[in-house]
Amino acid sequence: MADYVVRCRVCGRTYGRGYRFFRCxxxxxxxxxxxxxxxxxxxxxxxxxxFRYSALLPxxxxxxxxxxxxxxxxxxxxDGVEVxxxxxxxxxxxxxxxxxxxxxxxxxxxxxxxxxxxxSSGNTGISIAAYAAYAGxxxxxxxxxxxxxxxxxxxxxxxxxxxxxxxxxEASRQVLRDLSEGxxxxxxxxxxxxxxxxxxIAFEVYEDLRSVDYVITPVASGTLLLGFWKGxxxxxxxxxxxxIPKLVGVQACGYDSLSRFVGRVVxxxxxxxxxxxxxxxxxxxxxxxxxxxxxxxxxxxxxVVNDDxxxxxxxxxxxxxxxxxxxxxxAYAAFKLVRKELSGKVLIPLTGSGLKYVGxxxxxxxxxxxxx
Amino acid sequence: MADYVVRCRVCGRTYGRGYRFFRCxxxxxxxxxxxxxxxxxxxxxxxxxxFRYSALLPxxxxxxxxxxxxxxxxxxxxDGVEVxxxxxxxxxxxxxxxxxxxxxxxxxxxxxxxxxxxxSSGNTGISIAAYAAYAGxxxxxxxxxxxxxxxxxxxxxxxxxxxxxxxxxEASRQVLRDLSEGxxxxxxxxxxxxxxxxxxIAFEVYEDLRSVDYVITPVASGTLLLGFWKGxxxxxxxxxxxxIPKLVGVQACGYDSLSRFVGRVVxxxxxxxxxxxxxxxxxxxxxxxxxxxxxxxxxxxxxVVNDDxxxxxxxxxxxxxxxxxxxxxxAYAAFKLVRKELSGKVLIPLTGSGLKYVGxxxxxxxxxxxxx
Lengths: 372, 372
Known about the structure:
Rossmann fold; globular
């Protein structure tokens, strides 16, 4: 495992591995800087989950893994474009978040934390709750009041306390008010270790495909897009790839927080805010400017999609055999919107599982596929 | 890929690869016999899903894969016993059935089939529907009328026709009445190719752990247990292992169809039939005597568990971070019932995803974890 420091993106101050506050003393967001000096690429096939890549991960005294990562990549040629779907919904709790949780909960465990607090639209809450349960750590999860019932039931099932806090943004505010000396804010929107976990997706793309030309991914707090960015940059530093794929961020109507920061925006018509893409209804992500920077510096852009396009894309994906949630379909909707200008290999991570949405006549899948 | 014939278990008649009727002309169940002469162990790391093991699979002209298999194995020491949980719920549609569907739908595709018929408590119906959708084949799925709503929605979402047919056993009867020259009965309870797919789980156990002493697995139509049996026997023939693990079959109260055939049965108290373990409420599985034979010849036995034990086991598994369905918890409940007599390594496949059960206040997970 690699040596590392934690550094503030804003003031540049650095911290050691014992620092447990979620942000810099100046208020800025933190990042983990892994020392790649003398490190070479290597995969530990005997290790579980993302810890197969421990050579490139920050050194930790304990690994907490439920077998996340190593998800299948399925190629389909769509209108002449080579599309590689990476089935991130097959992670242990049904979303790519498990990559981040594995690392963040491992770190919390190293710090001796006994209770973690998290704010989430659902998927990260489920993920943190599961990994915390596995590690024997209590979890308290702040969610929007209109969280899909399936996601709510899952968080409860892992034994976590669930706080319904109004909107997604209000959940972010309330969790910070409830911090105390006895608990630990593991919040993925701030947590720099979380991105050390999600960056492993870039390593898997390298292992499976060597390189791709575009990555099209939904963005809320940006942990996946920033994971791609960080992972690809580390591969570049190691001399394993020669360029970074263009990162195309996808947001949904009413929640296009990146459009203030990104120069090029491709928009579908927005008459109302998204209801379907519940996993990307966050507007106050702490890392917004850095997400925008990654998109712009990679040569990518932002696409904003509406629910009509998401419904069509969701149907397409199920007819290809993919059990995805509506937010994942947002990325495929964006692909369809811009495919005329794409060439080469396009990677689309299918970020979350549709299995969480199946229950009851109120579920989005029921409405799309069964009627009512 | 290996040469093969299809042979009747009852009269011994053999058929070539073009035979498309689901059973022998004598009425008996069929098995695929792969010719292992001159075949050696080898994993094709460039292939997708179970086709990594194509050297040991029947030769096919087309592969239909959604990335099934290669599921994580998580070790926990429980009361001094080494337990290896194999997370089969992380297969593409949330159950181990995807291994069988990949092979059975590949075969259907080779045969030029345009519509497949299947009877299922839910998981196999979802799986066949997804793989058929991917392969561009129509699917009609016969299910019990009280199928969990989540499973129903999923089958519909893949574009399949769904027929509610009364009980699980009635679904088995009705599907056979509806067979015609224009369709193809892919039914997993009969289909010999299905087991060629599920046998790959034994190959993965060999890859990950070399050997285990016990496998504890739920049994309805027996496709998983028979897959273990066939896969381990092929590894034995190839000289890769020296003995077959003891296969412990698990059934639930009211549906212990194997107890007529297996000498040793460990029973919990059964006051009523299971409601929770909906995936193993089948009593007329065509391969019952052969399942019993595999259990007995391996040195295993049958365990029958009640819903109280299943609820406790389900809670235990979630607290370990495993997102399972109640039927998977039946296997862990059985483990807890007999663990005093177990030694060495115990493998428990966690067969199906709890994500399919999360929706609505009527869901089993809601009742167990949230209350009501």
